[in-house]
Amino acid sequence: MTATDRTPTERDASAKRQWIAVSAVALGTFLLVTAEQLPIGLLTPVGSALSVSEGAAGLMVTVPSIVAAVAAPVVPILVGRMDRRLLLVALMGLMTLANLASALAPDYPLLIIARVLVGVAIGGFWAIAGGLAVRLVPASRVPRATAIIFGGVGAANVFGVPIGTMIGGLANWRIAFGALSALALAVLVTLLAVLPPLTAAQPVGLRRLAGQFRNQGVRVGILATFLIVTGHFSAYTFISPVLQDLSGIDAQFVGPLLFGFGVAGIAGNFIAGATVAHRLHRTVLSIATALGVIVLLYPVAGLTAVGGVALLVAWGLAYGGVSTSLQTWMIKAAPQAVEEASALWVAVFNLSIGLGAFAGGAIVDALPLQGILWLAGVLLLAAGAAVWGARRNQSLR
């Protein structure tokens, strides 16, 4: 029976199943990115419990991010034409076990090993999920489905860390990891139930991946992603000590303030989503420049509670549009190779999270906190300069 032969009721039921599948994948991306960034709000309690410095505890972000950066292009290559449904379920099973191991880890080395497994699941799942929209919904619905799937990433950025921080503060950091494990199991069951068979028609290959670097728009998008995400996470990974030590805010208010950061980020996501379709280049340029200015102002204007909170909200508003605008940039830069461009983008995005956290940790252990803010500001303004250089590319207008 073809789509045109179906009754309206059958077509409605089919459409409903499609959007349930899309929503399940979006929930998976939300969970994975939340798992990657959860330690940001838990550095102090984890460091205290396992007797390591906050800089060393920052490796809980660095390690899975770097592993995910490698896994993003490698997993699609290794699995070839494997059914993507079974692959996503397997990766979610790995995430379930990895978070359970994190919650039960008796010492720091075992916790880091568990975070390595988290990185494999993140990179593989995110890379595959980015290209699934064309397999799950009709062509006319692909843009909307893609936005929903990547909306899971944005939602994780703005809600995952605050909620995880509050759970860790109200209960225990191990409870926060345990809750992620339980949620991963629920997502696994959902994916198994609602996803149709998804055998790959054309596997990702090394030659097609490498070919994307000949595309000027892709090159600029990758560079901008590297600079923006590295700059952001070099500072944001240590936002809890920044708020407490620089702005003089009590530790009990950090969780609620990060939630406020998330609410501002949601607003920023909607603002960016409304502008990228018609003003892509201007939107990305504005985001990078605004982030650079805000972070550089923090050591000067953020030395009071009021100043610190105001800049934090502005920071969240600007960063909330990063995922939407950069993903749109990559799609417009490589409309005929979205899966390959997305795999590279995911790899660079995750590598940048890890490098940002690592650089921030090194500076925090060696220099005053202001040092990470200066580093972040310089990188973010450099991203703005790179984007400005692509202003004549008509496909990115």
Automatic annotation (TrEMBL):
<keyword id="KW-0812">Transmembrane</keyword>
<feature type="transmembrane region" description="Helical">
    <location>
        <begin position="343"/>
        <end position="363"/>
    </location>
</feature>
<feature type="transmembrane region" description="Helical">
    <location>
        <begin position="369"/>
        <end position="390"/>
    </location>
</feature>
<feature type="transmembrane region" description="Helical">
    <location>
        <begin position="284"/>
        <end position="306"/>
    </location>
</feature>
<feature type="transmembrane region" description="Helical">
    <location>
        <begin position="112"/>
        <end position="134"/>
    </location>
</feature>
<feature type="transmembrane region" description="Helical">
    <location>
        <begin position="312"/>
        <end position="331"/>
    </location>
</feature>
<dbReference type="Pfam" id="PF07690">
    <property type="entry name" value="MFS_1"/>
</dbReference>
<dbReference type="InterPro" id="IPR020846">
    <property type="entry name" value="MFS_dom"/>
</dbReference>
<keyword id="KW-0472">Membrane</keyword>
<dbReference type="InterPro" id="IPR001958">
    <property type="entry name" value="Tet-R_TetA/multi-R_MdtG-like"/>
</dbReference>
<feature type="transmembrane region" description="Helical">
    <location>
        <begin position="220"/>
        <end position="239"/>
    </location>
</feature>
<dbReference type="InterPro" id="IPR050189">
    <property type="entry name" value="MFS_Efflux_Transporters"/>
</dbReference>
<dbReference type="GO" id="GO:0022857">
    <property type="term" value="F:transmembrane transporter activity"/>
</dbReference>
<dbReference type="InterPro" id="IPR036259">
    <property type="entry name" value="MFS_trans_sf"/>
</dbReference>
<feature type="transmembrane region" description="Helical">
    <location>
        <begin position="86"/>
        <end position="106"/>
    </location>
</feature>
<feature type="domain" description="Major facilitator superfamily (MFS) profile">
    <location>
        <begin position="21"/>
        <end position="394"/>
    </location>
</feature>
<feature type="transmembrane region" description="Helical">
    <location>
        <begin position="175"/>
        <end position="199"/>
    </location>
</feature>
<feature type="transmembrane region" description="Helical">
    <location>
        <begin position="59"/>
        <end position="79"/>
    </location>
</feature>
<dbReference type="GO" id="GO:0005886">
    <property type="term" value="C:plasma membrane"/>
</dbReference>
<feature type="transmembrane region" description="Helical">
    <location>
        <begin position="146"/>
        <end position="169"/>
    </location>
</feature>
<dbReference type="InterPro" id="IPR011701">
    <property type="entry name" value="MFS"/>
</dbReference>
<protein>
    <submittedName>
        <fullName>Putative MFS family arabinose efflux permease</fullName>
    </submittedName>
</protein>
<feature type="transmembrane region" description="Helical">
    <location>
        <begin position="251"/>
        <end position="272"/>
    </location>
</feature>
<keyword id="KW-1133">Transmembrane helix</keyword>
<keyword id="KW-1003">Cell membrane</keyword>
